[in-house]
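Reopening this ticket.

The earlier resolution said the output was attached, but the attachment link was broken on my side. Pasting everything inline this time so it's all in one place.
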Amino acid sequence: MTDPRNPAIAAAERLQESVVDLKEEIRGLRSYGERNRHLIVGLAVSLVLDVLLTIGVIIAAVTANHAGDLAAANRQNQLDTCTSTNQTRQASRNLWNYVLDQAAKDAEGQTPERRRQIAEFRTYMQSAYADRDCSKIGR
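Inline output:
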């Protein structure tokens, strides 16, 4: 290989081989570092997207919960309104029944026609002021 008489040349060749090996090792490390930087950037992007997705899911959950609360409050308001109108309808029926009962007590003015009219009006009034079924609200 080398001339044993010239140690300087042998040392230079060994040095050149070491430099070539070192150059290859540096090239490999550079490639490894570049790949790692790409992986780190990908991981950072993935982490940011994960945080954004988590925030979106939290916002959607809070919005859905709020909508559910509003729906429950609206249903309760509808039930309260239905109950209140049924009470008002009952009061109106009571008032009309009182008026019709007083009219029916007038024995002198009672003709078959008038009794028929009172009965027809009572039937109409009962249907017009009938209670609403509050159990069907919100279904």
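Reporter confirms the inline version is readable. The CA atoms of residues 100 and 119 lie 9 Å apart. DSSP finds two helices and no strands in the chain.
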